[in-house]
Amino acid sequence: MPVWEVFRRERPGQPFEHAGSFPAPDATFAEVYARDLYARRNESQALWIVPRDAVVEIEDFPEETDRSYRRVDGYSLKVRLREARERAGSLPG
Amino acid sequence: MSEQARSRADLLLPIADDELIVGWRNSEWTGIAPFLEEDVAFSSIAQNEIGHARVLYELVAEELGTDPDALAFDRAPAESRCAPLVQLQLVPDWGRTIARHYLYETADAVRLEALKASGDAAVAGLAAKIDREEGYHRMHAEMWVDRLAESDEGRERLEAAVDELWPYAVAMLEPELRPALAERIGRDLPSDKLLRVLERGVALPELEELYDEMTMVRRLAPAGRW
User: Fold this and answer.
1) How far is A72 from chain B (nearest CA, A)?
2) Which terminus of chain B is more exposed, N or C, with fewer CB under 10 A?
3) Domains of chain B
4) Is the pLDDT of residue B113 over 70?
5) Cβ contacts of residue A40 below 8 Å, gap of 6+?
6) Measured between alpha carbons, how far is B50 from B56 in angstroms, rounded to an integer?
7) Domains of chain A by range and CATH?
8) A68 touches chain B (CB under 8 A)
9) B201 φ/ψ sector (left φ>0, alpha ψ -120 to 50, else beta)
């Protein structure tokens, strides 16, 4: 039986988030079951039901050379700030 | 008892009794439906039907000065107004269960359509509310009919079950609503002679068994509060 992936939105304007998956013979069954499994208690404002086959999945992200210099996460300001405060003798609390 | 109360009870008690008993019968599949997701879906439909029975009993109870539990559980099987169609115990035959589900939901749709046009605003409003949930039940029933009809074995068993249960489904409705059901299902109306033994008010032996089970706790603790 094909597997269906369900994405749910809790409130209008929010992004859809992956909710889970279940098997169902076709799209009609999938719709009926998704209503019961993910929206029966008004926990979802909208659902996306996607056959798993339709999902393009990538999970290999090779990074053969060290490219950490390209990252923009910088350095920890917290440590620098603390050192500066120690030097100035103005540590809080 | 006012004239309107009597007519509301006459009008709604048979429907409430049908919903209660079909809900109970459908719930007999909980835990043993063909697969897990269907188990959840069919149990949820069963719960909806019992919920519909509750709101209908409430409306009748208000008028009769009693309470919904008393109407649901304190009347003997012989006093139940439910149709023989919902009394049948069909576990473990999924084909017959889907045949009943399909026939019941279609007949219920015809009945709700008529109730929505009622001059009694409370009745018409409630029918419209119930019908919004029933739309989903019909979708569920029809998808299963289509699914079972895809294989030779499924189609044969389903057709045999619909043949068997068709007179029961017709007998469930008031005579003036029967042609609309025949049109929706695409079958001819059975003979009056055949329908007579299936009319509302006939209590099959399996209804007795169901009542024993359904009212067991209430009879053990008649004044119990939950």
Assistant:
1) 47
2) C
3) 3-220 (1.20.1260.10)
4) yes
5) B44
6) 10
7) 3-54 (3.10.20.520)
8) no
9) left
- Chain A's closest residue to B144, CA to CA, is A29
DSSP structural state of residue A61:
-
Q: Report yes or no: B140 at the A interface, CB cutoff 8 Å.
A: yes
CA distance B145 to B168: 18
- A17 CB-contact burial (10 Å; exposed 0-12 / middle 13-18 / buried 19+): exposed
CB contacts, 8 Å: B41 with chain A: 32-33, 36
Residue position matching structure tokens 């409130």: A11
Element housing B220 (H / E): helix B216-220
pLDDT tens digit sequence for B177-204 = 999 999 999 999 999 999 999 999 899 9
pLDDT tens, residue by residue, A6-35: 999 999 999 999 999 999 999 999 999 999
Class of residue B87 by CB neighbours under 10 A (exposed 0-12, middle 13-18, buried 19+): buried
Contacts of B22 (CB under 8 A, 6+ apart): B49, B86, B100, B104
